[in-house]
Write a structure and sequence with these properties.
The structure is a homotrimer of 239-residue chains.
Chain A (H helix, E strand, L loop, with lengths): L1 E5 L6 H13 L5 E5 L7 H12 L7 E5 L10 E6 L2 E6 L5 H6 L3 E5 L11 H14 L7 E3 L13 E7 L5 E6 L9 E3 L2 E3 L13 E5 L4 E6 L4 H5 L10
Parallel strand pairs in A: 1-2, 1-3, 3-5
Antiparallel strand pairs in A: 4-5, 4-6, 6-7, 8-9, 9-13, 10-11, 12-13
Helix pairs in contact in A: 1-4
Amino acid sequence: MIVLFTDFGIEGPYTGQVQARLQQLAPGVPVINLFSDLEPYDVEAAAYLLPAYAAGFPPGTVFVCVVDPGVGGSRPGVAVCADGCWYVGPNEGLFAILARRARHVQCRELPAAMGVSSSFHGRDVFAPVAAQLAGGLSVEAVDVPVACLDKPEWPDELLRVVYIDRYGNAMTGVRASEVDASQLLSVNGHQLKSAQTFSDVGMGEAFWYANSNGLVELAVNRGRADKVLGISVGTLLSL
Amino acid sequence: MIVLFTDFGIEGPYTGQVQARLQQLAPGVPVINLFSDLEPYDVEAAAYLLPAYAAGFPPGTVFVCVVDPGVGGSRPGVAVCADGCWYVGPNEGLFAILARRARHVQCRELPAAMGVSSSFHGRDVFAPVAAQLAGGLSVEAVDVPVACLDKPEWPDELLRVVYIDRYGNAMTGVRASEVDASQLLSVNGHQLKSAQTFSDVGMGEAFWYANSNGLVELAVNRGRADKVLGISVGTLLSL
Amino acid sequence: MIVLFTDFGIEGPYTGQVQARLQQLAPGVPVINLFSDLEPYDVEAAAYLLPAYAAGFPPGTVFVCVVDPGVGGSRPGVAVCADGCWYVGPNEGLFAILARRARHVQCRELPAAMGVSSSFHGRDVFAPVAAQLAGGLSVEAVDVPVACLDKPEWPDELLRVVYIDRYGNAMTGVRASEVDASQLLSVNGHQLKSAQTFSDVGMGEAFWYANSNGLVELAVNRGRADKVLGISVGTLLSL
């Protein structure tokens, strides 16, 4: 299975072009759009989503991961093998938290792209590499130290909003397993208690809970947390 | 074929996670996103869309249907067999109109979900059941009376807007077959005549017509009916 | 491979209904959504995107192309064979630029649709034709002169914005190969220089460049060109 984890958008041409390329190079391999609306340029936010949302995919899954503020720049592409899955994309920090949490990690640097568009490496560089890996083939690449993936200044739990979903729920970069359920969470002057799930609080009430992928998420029962709390991707919180 | 009929959104992770689960449990079965942007929490609106948009799918199709205001609550999940197709989801009224209009209906109640996320039953409960049904397997479930699906207070034709499409056209919960083409339709102080199709009225003119799935739909030739008429999902109409 | 190039939107029912129809009539043929958010009614804009974004697909690809201001009107549907690929849709100019640039073009007019919805020919007429062509079958159609596809009043390079992507970048109807890199481009009182790619200009700076499909595109490094330049689909430019 190949999984797309990008900020490409799903309606415009980019996701479709990547899918078409994968279809040609790895026919018959299913392609899943996991995220196509990650916050543009916000590599840090995506880095905390990746290990949470990659969990549960079977070994051998290949993730194409692109959030790329330095479009066309010279940052190298990498293929990361972490606990049996492959992750391919530009190395600007997107794999930092994933690599920190994985038990077994290997990192390979892809050769500089030649003769392809300078602005769409997702289609022209990373999709072909993903297709090869999905087919069990090796890719031309050089082993590099895993440390090159890390961003040492990034914390283990990121106290800010990293994604807002269609319902207005706000995912954070904090693992719920690292927070006691009795803790209050502060955001924009609001103090939120935790709850097990939506139906455990009153209509219109804001709360935090462990979402279905283990992240602390801010929500409002039958309401939009983003509107009620005045938050967006990047809003800071404290515990 | 497995068909998704949800309010999950298509860009964020939820639809992709359901697709990935289906891919693992029912490899090779095609998955179609029919609706992924149903109005959140508005089970009633979705209930009138379902029979209109499920029509025409071949026998054996399995629909995963989730619009779920009571996320994590204790409402039971059901698997409904109606005229040869299966429909799986939480029983909060979403299958009421479908069951009322079908010739042959059976309803089975799914056992309470154990050991899964309390907030994403679409992925953790309903997708696995759908995968089993798509593979021709039976599911552990108890036959229950079909009457448990109905919402007796809901009318046969719902005189309100149930969905607004990308063009600004407004679908209603009324079957066009139940309305005479000579009838005027009133909405927000506007009186609309019927027309066969867009090109039959003047540019910018509002009208109603029988849409391609048999529902009364409000539209404007080369314009947005939602803007021109000031309507949104929930706006009432009268005949 | 069947490729969808439409203004249907991807979340609502239309793209899913077309996919379901294709799945039934051409099981196993992969379907790619290339564009599902073309500007409604703007056939001209789409006509300049089509040859740019159809390039690179393998021979035998079948494109379903629908941007249809005259929904339900009597304009004929066509199946166009251009340089080894098929293009199916209503003939309102969408194939004009494609046909002008192709080396080998044939055009066949589809018979008037009978007994189908008058508003959803994408699902009821063009998808079935595409499925037949993808299966290597011929379709009932009459050869007509290729000239019927053209819009002689349309220029070879269209000096306006034809699409704005998720990042706010603005594609134009101008091929970058027809413009010297030293040329300034004027839009809304701004004078833009060209650059190779995003990382070649300062943060927040606007520029134009040859995008990954060869069109002149207006962009801002780590910003939204649509907001910075105050532009939208239809905005005119000059060279």
